[in-house]
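Record format v2
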Amino acid sequence: MSQSNVQEMNPNKTSYTTYNTAWCPGCGDFGILSSLKNALQDLQLDPHKIIFAGGIGQAAKTPQYISGNRFCGLHGRSIPAAVAAKIANDNLTVIVNTGDGDGFGEGGNHFLAAVRRNVNITHFAHDNQVYGLTLGQASPTSLHGYVTGSQPYGYLSIPFNPVVTALILGAGFVARGFAGDQEQLTELMKAAIRFDGYALVDIFQPCVSFNKVNTYSWYQERVRPLGEEHDPTDFEQALKAALTFEEADGAGIPTGILYNVEKPTYWEQHEVLQRGPLLKQGATKEFIQEQINKLA
Amino acid sequence: MFNILLGGAAGQGVETTSAVIEKILKANGYNVFVTRDLMSRVRGGHNFSTLRFGRNPVIAHDHTVDGILAVNQETIDLHIKDLREDGFIIADDGFITDDARAIMLPMTKTAVELGNPRVASSVAVGALIRLFDLPVEALREILEETLKPEHVEINMEAAKAGYESVTYEQGESSRRKADDTDDKSETSQENAHHDYSDWITLSSSEAIALGALAAGLQFYSAYPMSPSTKIMEYLAGIQYEANIVVEQAEDELAAINAVVGASYAGAVAMVSTSGGGYQLMVEGMASAGMMEIPTVTVIAMRPGPVTGLPTRTEQGDLNLAIFAGNGEYPKMVLAVKNQSDAFYQTARAHHIAQKYQMPVVILTDQYLSDGTATVEPLDLSLIEKVRVSASDEEALAYRDDPANQRGDEKFGEMKESELAANEYKRYRLTEDGISPRLLPGHPKAFVSVDTDSHDEYGFINEAAEARIAQMDKRMRKLVKLIAEDLTDAEQIGTAGSDIVLVAWGSMHGPLKEAVNELAKQGVNVSALVYGDLWPLPTEKIKAEAENAAHIINVEQNFSGQLAGLIRRQTGIAMTDSVLKYDGRPLSASEISGAVLRIVKKG
């Protein structure tokens, strides 16, 4: 990175550095990035001990705009890489930023596997219900009937619901946030990062350039932060909230921590990882010799 | 040398019986080479093994057999045409044959009397033990190693019944043939009656797993696909003692990307698949090339395209391994020549991957992966563990520093200017193209990698200058690789021959035998067998091409992929080809026969 890429820093605001971005002015991604920096600062995490992993897409560029170790891999494939990086070195915090297309379309199978594998990574899904980088096609979370250049007669598929999917696959931490509510989002992110196991925060993020339906005001009219009465350890309540995705005049869309129950992690169940970071391990010469001798 | 064919339906225990015979032959000092011909089904069909053994190292299979052990009727029907005139058939007396060479035994009847029809094949094993004068009591120990405890005694009883049903005299000519006592040639006399019982039985699957462990393997991921799955199963079975993690991925894309991610974080990582799975890994491989992350990918080849012949052998994925991937990136492709070579080459592949920070592909095939050979015990003293951060002591020190725990350095105490200063040039432009590698978690550096075109820091950069500089830097690594680490083809026979055979990988054994066979017939032939294939070493082929009247490629594929590669890289065209693509391994006699036909033709 050249120095010219670093903007004037605000000395009053500690942050994970500010970099020039390629996002459109007004993009929901700014709210997510800002909340992420606040969350990390609140948690007092050293950026040297964080891997920010991303694939391809506007959301996936997040690692480029924050200080830390950055793995900017392939479209849809950042999750398996992130999971394995965490398995390799448990001393590091691993945070994955995907979009809805990257995380649930191209990387759908990896998303399902990551939930079930329960490796301790944090997944922030920037969910704008549209493809931004490729200039406005339907994404897995686009609403039924949504009209785009490649779906001129409306999107015919049933919208993908990430939080319901994560819950029914057994995810321990599932939350829904909104880029327009940074205060809530920061807290959701902190809880997700602290959670021991795979944690998903599905974040509504208006795309000001390509999604003229799901705008700031569209979300603002619908999001309903969950109140005290919601018990995040109650699976049925969680599922009910996850399934609620209604019009402004109805129940709206509940946001907040839908579910938060720790489950046995991959790390806890694998004897080798219990002994310490994997990158300090490997077979001893004596052990390999024994295996060779067994072939005699 | 003696060649036995053991055949039966899937589910009749042919695999286990084959392993038992292999062990008892080896325990008696024989060197054994086993090939497995399987159908892609769990029950029924027809499976067979050939066990070729002798008092000298056996380096290849053969189609002509000296003895047949028939556990089903099909074994007789299908293979009797391959039986030598003085050979024998051991078969159940319920099978139908009027062949005078058949020794019909009450295999099924004995097994049923003993209480389990599945032990019929042990009756044949017992007969074989008598014919070759092997110690029948040694069988007990082998059965104990191979079978569940409750099955040992009944199989011993069955074997004893078989032992009693033939005579020592019936085996006389077979023993002579196995011991090479008819062969008066110098080489066989020299090594005659060497005892191989202290050597090891090895497939390339185990060899690759052990070679990777010796190099320091820590993370292994794969999606099951024949014939590569045995590597995963072997490593998975020992992972807790070997201190590694073996994770079966949700698909091949996940497997390669997991390996790339683990390696980025600093683990020594490997993935394996077959050609079909590698198609799905192509993008992940290119990402390792672009991001400069060391990876080792094993392709255990089987006949394609797509599903092809799932349980059989081919060398059809050379082009795939070398050329698949969008754009251009540096990588190395090598093929293993035999089971033992697979061990040393895998360790070498890991060293090269780490040294050059790039992907390395290892090619093996079903012939070597399912087949086993008796080889000298692997020499661990020849292998060092890889260094993960090749050029920075600090990175290694980090790995062992207990102070490096999450959260012990507080972000708030750091000034922002210092953070920016921590941007480290992961892709620093260097003369040899290799940039000093640090690992994520380094207290003074952010390690950034990117599949986008990037600058020295690993940030997206679309400028033409950065593009050219980074592209040149990556490709320069191959210049160094060619100068320092590339091994030219192995020469078999005398250089400068009139007839030169050219082959790669597992054709090594059959070809070596073919060259010897042809020499005995007075035809002087030399061979070049390639291990390293990309970048392609070209010196020897250029030298050989100058004098040879016939340059013949010998490959197990349809189009002669090595021939095409040589032509592409050197302009040298083969004069003739010996190609086989039916999924069955090419044998020395097939090669020598084909060469003789070509030479006669002029």
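The first strand of chain A starts at residue 50 and ends at 54.
Residues 1-15 of chain A have pLDDT under 50 and may be disordered.
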